[in-house]
């Protein structure tokens, strides 16, 4: 009972852990939260550097906190994925503001302000095109130890500032880009889910048309035949009623198969069944199926082609003779349905103006086959389907070709 097991697994997942959609929605928020936490840590480091000198009065400390919060607020705004869509002018203005907040306060706070160049380096990578961003990033990083050297702090501290700025710039940039990727992945998975729903709706509509159209047409035909036979030949009407019940049971089975999303049909069986149905409609039918054992996917697609072709003969044509022929060649199977149900003017009244022909083409194309249909030189309507003996790679495991 595969359906029941899937429902059980789904229920267990719902009881033991959050739904998949909730976990997916949490991922972008978690990524943003990590970026915010890292920025708060860098804010704290700058403020602590100013405090640890011991010379910061209340005004200086207030100014330090305000500038740091303003700069990292700008940095957090740039961390949003939507910031990558800003016009270049806005990004350049943001970069200019952050450059002023980075270099101007250094005259007041001195060496304690050197690490603020790290967020600026990250902003350069986030706001400028790549061909410009990385050289500018290198320039900002290379310039970071210049001020400490001019202040006479020595090579050791200058190396520390250089490493700190490089690390901060790469970490902030890397986490921001990672947040973008997480958001893109989340959006892509939502789009794929919507596409899967759409594909399932199309599959359901296609299966209803291809599978049930034949059965319902046959039921209608046999019902009309029984109605005509009851007054004159009740014993034959009883036989046709039994046949009608069999077709109705088959229709019920098809409904269940459509709801499960799996069908396994046989070309040979479908051709024989079609011959019986056409015989009831007074259509002389010649069936010649000379194929070896086919791949289940190919067998199902060709059987569906026979069913759709016969359905349209019953619904839309005035055929008196029909030929169903299938032969296998080196690597392909050739299926041909020919009938004389051509309307006045030489145009076939096949009913393929709707979705029938498109459905068949979709199924055959999916396994690497092709379909042609039209009136031949003899004035007969000819439906020709070619399919490979082995379905195209990737379709062998999918019964719904």
Instruction: Give the percentage of residues in beta strands.
Output: 5-15%
Indicate the CATH class of the largest domain: Alpha Beta
Q: What's the SSE pattern? A: HHHHHHHHHHHEHEEHEE
Counting H and I runs of at least 4 residues, what is the number of helices?
A: 13
Tally of domains: 2
Q: Which CATH architecture of the largest domain is right?
A: 2-Layer Sandwich
- The chain-level structural class is alpha+beta
Tell me about this structure:
The chain has 401 residues and is α+β, with helices and mostly antiparallel strands. The chain folds into two domains: 20-191, no CATH class; 204-388, 2-Layer Sandwich (Heat Shock Protein 90). It has helices spanning 2-16, 20-52, 58-78, 88-103, 106-109, 117-127, 130-143, 146-150, 154-229, 234-260, 267-280, 296-316, 356-366; strands at residues 284-290, 321-328, 332-339, 370-375, 381-388. Strands 1-2-3-5-4 form a five-stranded mixed beta sheet. The longest helix is centred in the middle third of the chain and has 76 residues, at 154-229. It is rod-shaped and about 115 Å long. The model is unreliable at 1-21, 344-354 and 394-401 (pLDDT under 50).
């Amino acid at each position: 009972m595969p359906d029941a097991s899937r429902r059980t697994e789904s229920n267990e997942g719902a009881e033991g852990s959050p739904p998949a959609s909730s976990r997916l929605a949490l991922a972008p928020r978690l990524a943003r939260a990590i970026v915010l936490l890292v920025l708060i840590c860098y804010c704290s480091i700058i403020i602590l550097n100013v405090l640890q000198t011991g010379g910061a009065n209340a005004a200086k400390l207030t100014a330090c906190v305000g500038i740091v919060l303003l700069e990292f607020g700008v940095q957090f705004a740039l961390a949003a994925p939507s910031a990558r869509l800003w016009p270049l002018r806005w990004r350049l203005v943001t970069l200019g503001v952050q450059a002023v907040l980075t270099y101007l306060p250094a005259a007041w706070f001195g060496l304690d302000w050197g690490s603020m160049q790290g967020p600026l380096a990250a902003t350069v990578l986030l706001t400028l095109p790549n061909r410009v961003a990385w050289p500018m990033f290198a320039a900002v990083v290379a310039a970071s130890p210049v001020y400490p050297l001019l202040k006479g702090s020595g090579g050791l501290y200058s190396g520390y500032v250089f490493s700190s700025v490089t690390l901060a710039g790469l970490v902030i940039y890397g986490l921001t880009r990672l947040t973008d990727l997480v958001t893109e992945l989340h959006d892509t998975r939502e789009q794929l889910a919507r596409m899967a729903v759409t594909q399932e709706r199309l599959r359901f509509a296609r299966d209803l048309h291809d599978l049930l159209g034949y059965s319902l047409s046959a039921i209608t035909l046999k019902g009309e035949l029984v109605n005509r036979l009851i007054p004159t030949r009740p014993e034959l009407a009883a036989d046709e009623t039994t046949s009608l019940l069999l077709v109705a049971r088959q229709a019920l089975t098809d409904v269940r198969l459509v709801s499960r999303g799996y069908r396994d049909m046989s070309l040979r069986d479908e051709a024989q069944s079609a011959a019986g149905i056409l015989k009831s409609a007074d259509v002389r039918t010649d069936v010649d199926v000379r194929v070896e054992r086919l791949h289940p996917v190919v067998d199902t697609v060709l059987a569906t082609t026979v069913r759709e072709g016969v359905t349209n003969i019953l619904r839309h044509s005035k055929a008196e003779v029909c030929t169903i022929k299938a032969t296998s060649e080196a690597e392909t199977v050739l299926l041909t349905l020919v009938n004389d149900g051509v309307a006045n003017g030489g145009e076939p009244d096949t009913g393929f103006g709707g979705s029938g022909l498109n459905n068949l083409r979709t199924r055959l194309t999916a396994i690497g086959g092709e379909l042609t249909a039209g009136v031949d030189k003899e004035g007969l309507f000819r439906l020709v389907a070619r399919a490979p003996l082995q379905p195209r790679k990737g379709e062998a495991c999918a019964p719904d070709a």
